[in-house]
Specification:
Elements lengths: L1 H9 L2 H29 L5 E2 L8 H10 L3 E8 L9 E5 L5 E2 L4 E7 L5 E3 L9 H10 L8 E3 L6 E6 L2 E3 L4 E3 L5 E5 L36
Parallel strand pairs: 2-5, 7-11
Antiparallel strand pairs: 1-4, 3-5, 6-10, 8-9, 8-11
């Protein structure tokens, strides 16, 4: 009798309704979490990144905002063939798909050519070494100008005929000329030695000596 009452209470209508309510709440919670994650991560939603290269930054901002994305300028460069303030590169690249709110990082074109400090190449390295350093920095190097000195050794750097010193900032649009030793030295550096002339005894007169021979009688 007691066991029957126990199981009767266990299977009562009130307990069954509580269990159903708990299952319903658990179901709604799972559904809510699932849809909430989809909304938060924009599941199934993708936006194609537009091509911004060559586009003015003001126009690019409009394009990106209309697409639901964010644009951030991270760097600047210089290309004289393109107008100032246009976009040189972007990341992610055009054509890739991203989600709403994704950040597009861009590099814009500067209005003026950048200036770079001349490295310490004067009287410090060979022509090939100096040329490689300058080219790696973005400079254009003209054919060398040869000067008196050790062969292929760098004695100076000039811009439009003006010598520049190490550390001086020069526009990369200005071509450089290296002053390089030719391996030959000027007359001031060469001692000219005259061969010694033997002077005959008896003075410096240019007279040939001879012996008089008398005829026999």
């Amino acid at each position: 009798m007691k066991a029957k009452e126990f199981f009767g209470k266990f299977c009562s209508k009130f307990l069954i309704l509580n269990l159903i309510a708990m299952l319903l709440v658990l179901f709604l919670l799972l559904v809510g979490v699932n849809y909430g994650l989809d909304w938060y991560t924009h599941h199934g939603e993708s936006i194609k990144v537009p091509n911004l290269e060559g586009v003015k930054i003001s126009k690019a901002r409009e394009m990106i905002e209309e697409a639901g994305l964010v644009i951030v300028v991270t760097d600047s460069g210089y290309n004289k063939r393109l107008p100032a303030d246009c976009i040189l590169s972007q990341s992610p690249d055009a054509g890739l798909t991203v989600k709403t709110g994704h950040v597009i990082y861009v590099t814009i074109n500067s209005s003026s050519s950048p200036s770079v400090a001349i490295p310490d190449v004067v009287d410090n390295c060979s022509y090939r070494e100096a040329e490689a350093k300058l080219v790696s920095l973005g400079f254009k190097v003209l054919p060398p100008q040869y000067v008196t000195g050790e062969k292929d050794w760098v004695y100076g750097v000039s811009v439009n005929g003006r010598r520049v010193s190490s550390g001086e900032r020069v526009s990369i649009e200005q071509p450089l000329t290296l002053l390089v030793g030719s391996g030959q030295y000027g007359m001031d550096d060469v001692s000219v030695v005259e061969p010694e002339m033997e002077i005959p005894e008896g003075g410096g007169d240019d007279v040939d000596e001879f012996v008089e021979v008398k005829e026999k009688e």
